Amino acid sequence: MTRTRIDLHTHSAVSDGTDAPSDVIGHARAAGVNVLALTDHDTVAGIAEAAKVLPPGFTLVPGMELSCAHQGSSVHLAAYLFDADAPELAAELRRIRDDRVNRAREMVRRLGEAGLGVTWERVREIAFGDAGAAGDGAREAGVVVGRPHIARAIVEAGGAADVQDAFDRWIGSGRPAHVARYALDPVRAVEAVRAAGGVCSLAHPARSEGLLTGAVPEELVERMARAGLGAVEADHPSHEEAEAEHWRGVARDLGLAVTGSSDDHGELTGRRIGARTTAPEEFERLTAPATGAAPITRG
């Protein structure tokens, strides 16, 4: 009998990963993962391509990582099996993606003022790939511009040693070229996903940029749970074991499922699909209420 291995948090080049959606599926298969959620930032633009290349017996879970903010700090929500055309959610996603482009342009402008040879044209090429020729109209196809694209351009221009160094020097929170952007309130985000028939897990709760403690406040998680949050991503590569155990306990206390995921970004994270996984019973518990979309399986 084939063992079920579930990874519920991965990224492709449609957002800030480095691999095409079809290649993400190939890497998952090679890693022994046979249930995979593609969760690009604020977009489902890679799902169709990924679905075309599913090997027999492989299940793709349509999803995204939704940008949220609480008191000026980032909170990320892994959302699954929602209706991407639901009016409220679709409108919010358009607003988020548009503001990502505006933010990226302003970051590039600030980098230029600082003397770095980073251009919008190069950032666009990195982010959109072949779609870059379409200019900013590529936003309409759901392709997302993220800070990792800018970071890679900074490295190319000689402004940093690597992507992490680019964040630390230039574009991380509080750094010279950092620019805030629009994001949803986490409770409202949960409500919007549930209204679209989806379910969601709080992503990497111990690692939220900008929060003084680095962790999402538990009072906020409680409010998200009351709004319909389904799970907590306790098992994440960035979590120490003590942190993971703490968040498993938070999930248990709130009656939520526990998810585990790689948060793979391709080359940027060492192609680590399957580094953390979700137990089948937790996956079933999380996804049972979903009505907006269904997992895609090739028999």
From TrEMBL:
Domain of life: Bacteria
Domain Polymerase/histidinol phosphatase N-terminal, first and last residues per copy: 6-70
Annotated spans, Disordered: 259-299
Name under which the protein is recorded: PHP domain-containing protein
Organism: Nocardiopsis suaedae
